[in-house]
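Reminder to self: tokens first, then the designed residues, so the page reads top to bottom the way the pipeline ran.
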């Protein structure tokens, strides 16, 4: 008998322009997983409203994110692609799991602490229970692996804790998932403050490269990236004084399929200016084919709606099975 393929679930929030960090830390790694695993990738619009959004823009960005997934190489013929809010099982399971999650656990989440500090006027309950909804996303599909960037590992940990707690009470209901970190690119840093991660919510657009930036804007951003005054190209991952150069070396390494150490050897003795030009060019050349695909796909709204409609059908079917099992276990009467 053919062995059952392992399952993968992941997603990105349509909360802003997608950055090079999102691409290198997450989406790019999904592409190669599609043949080996049963994959589902979603646009996490329900998570996005934990921070205020302009409705028309959220709608637009959700479509754009889908077009970008496809342009990056996610194939709707191989993977399930859907919009989180199209599957009500996510909200339903999140309610149940919330009753198995402790306030103390949620209070410890770094992302909650960061986001509350940034949005002091809107520390809403959704922001607090964000990790519970994320656990529901993953557990509904019995995902074995969740490919994400480093910043999401704490959320995977709490998801595992919730799943194990539930299983201990009711038997083996959930697959306990594992986070899958990219071997490189798992944490791309801000170009303006290389001790912080590159983030689309950065108020200074020079800190991040958007997948939608004009190519000459990308070049300018790389050229104005913060480095150091030492003027030496060396990869010293544990030296914070080298954070800027380390980051550019890491980006160059993923874009050219090599290691930061090898890039450092290649550019040893050269000036930062020449190195930055080479990095900018590698980024632009890497993004160019994706952008061409994206520009084509985003025009075809009926194709996009076909993809997410079909995706939601499959996702709902799989998720409902898990949800019914959970409902039975906790004592609900299942219709
Ligand atoms: P988000 O932008 O928070 O929705 O993140 C979507 C995915 O991109 C998650 O898997 C993140 O871990 C990943 N990601 C976000 N920013 C970065 C970054 N600077 N470096 C690497 N991965 C990232
Ligand atoms: N919290 C994730 C992020 O900000 C997005 C996300 C929501 C997600 N649900 C998920 C990622 C489930 C992986 C699996 O990046």
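Designed residues (335 positions):
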């Amino acid at each position: 008998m053919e062995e059952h393929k392992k399952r993968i679930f992941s997603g990105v929030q349509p909360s802003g322009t997608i950055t090079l960090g999102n691409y290198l830390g997450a989406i790019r790694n999904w592409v190669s997983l599609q043949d080996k695993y049963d994959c589902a990738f979603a646009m996490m619009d329900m998570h996005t409203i934990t921070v205020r959004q302009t409705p028309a823009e959220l709608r637009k960005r959700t479509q754009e994110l889908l077009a970008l997934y496809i342009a990056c190489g996610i194939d709707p013929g191989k993977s399930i692609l859907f919009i989180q809010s199209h599957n009500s099982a996510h909200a339903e399971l999140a309610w149940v799991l919330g009753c198995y999650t402790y306030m103390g656990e949620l209070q410890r989440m770094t992302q909650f602490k960061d986001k509350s500090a940034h949005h002091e006027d809107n520390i809403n309950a959704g922001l607090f229970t964000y990790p519970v909804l994320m656990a529901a996303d993953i557990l509904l599909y019995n995902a074995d692996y969740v490919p994400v960037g480093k910043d999401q590992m704490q959320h995977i940990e709490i998801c595992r804790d919730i799943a194990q707690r539930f299983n201990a009470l009711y038997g083996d209901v959930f697959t306990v998932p594992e986070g899958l970190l990219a071997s490189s690119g798992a944490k791309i840093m801000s170009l303006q403050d290389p001790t912080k991660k590159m983030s689309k919510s950065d108020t200074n657009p020079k800190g991040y490269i958007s997948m939608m930036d004009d190519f000459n804007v990308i070049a300018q951003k790389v050229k104005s990236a913060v480095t150091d005054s030492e003027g030496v190209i060396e990869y010293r991952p544990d030296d914070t004084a080298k954070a800027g150069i380390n980051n550019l070396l890491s980006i160059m390494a993923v874009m050219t399929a090599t290691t930061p150490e090898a890039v450092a050897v290649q550019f040893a003795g050269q000036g930062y200016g020449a190195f930055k030009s080479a990095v900018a060019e590698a980024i632009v050349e890497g993004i160019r084919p994706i952008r061409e695909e994206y520009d084509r796909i985003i025009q075809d709204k009926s194709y996009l709606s076909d993809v997410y409609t079909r995706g939601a059908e499959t996702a709902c079917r799989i998720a409902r099975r898990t949800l019914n099992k959970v409902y039975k276990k906790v004592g609900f009467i299942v219709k």
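Strands lie at 7-12, 38-43, 80-83, 145-147, 178-180.
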